[in-house]
Specification:
CRO Repressor, alpha+beta, four-stranded antiparallel β-sheet, 2 domains, three-stranded antiparallel β-sheet, single chain
């Protein structure tokens, strides 16, 4: 009974239309059509560079266009002309900044950042990796998507300014022993070395033939957790 009373007093019109009338719905259709055409035209003017995998700068541009387009579609008190001015400003600023990026390398690095090497010769570049907001598990998942099972398959891995990862592989005959990165490969870490074999540091990927020892400190990162290294070839 209480639910029925509450339902009877509920303003369904306000829920469905907000503060507008039913007559505003056809206008919403027209507004959306106009802004859709404006967005399509603006992205066409930006060119292919504006719609590929986005850099930080390009993401700002797309967010700006989206914000300018959204409000006029369904807010009656937001006019279309101010939105068109915003679109014109955003596209103009994009064109100007793109021009300056092409003319000045320092300005390009300031706006878009620069590529950073995360793995070199099968070992993490620890100082570079710390600067990136990229978790180890997330990074390993990216590598596994490229059919990589251990770091010794990689000559260099570079995170580009767009956030994508470029990977350069060793030929099969040059693949080294390296840190295995399969989901269960790091579950059992060793602090003491039980027998002579090739081991990889779980923190940086440094790989070396180790002899039995109670504890062995990695000369690269000074950590002491190890797993047996893998020399599997990459299967494509």
């Amino acid at each position: 009974m209480y639910l029925l009373k509450a339902s009877a007093g509920f303003d369904w019109k306000e829920l469905m239309l907000g503060g507008e009338d039913w007559s505003f719905l056809p206008e919403t259709v027209l507004r959306t059509l106009i802004m859709f055409i404006v967005i399509l035209t603006s992205l066409r003017l930006l060119g292919k560079r504006g719609v590929k995998q986005l850099s930080v700068f390009e993401l700002v541009v797309i967010i700006g266009l989206g914000s300018a387009a959204g409000d006029p579609m369904f807010y009656k008190d937001v006019g279309i002309l101010p939105a068109l001015i915003v679109f014109t400003m955003v596209v103009s600023l994009y064109t100007l900044v793109t021009y300056m990026i092409g003319k000045n390398k320092k300005f390009e690095k300031l706006v878009e950042g620069k590529p950073v090497c995360l793995i070199k010769n099968g070992v993490f570049s620890i100082d570079n990796f710390k600067k990136e907001t990229l978790g180890e598990d997330e990074f390993f998942a990216e590598l596994r998507l490229q059919s990589i099972s251990q770091l010794g398959q990689i000559e260099q891995a570079i995170v580009e300014s767009s956030g994508s990862i470029s990977i350069f592989y060793y030929p099969d005959e040059e693949v080294k022993y390296g840190l295995p990165i399969m989901p269960d490969s790091l579950d059992i870490c060793l602090q003491s070395i039980p027998d002579t074999d090739r081991y990889s540091c779980t923190f940086c990927g440094y790989t070396e033939t180790l002899k039995p020892a109670e504890k062995y400190t990695c000369p690269t990162c000074e950590k002491w957790k190890w797993v047996k290294a893998s020399n599997k070839k990459r299967i494509t």
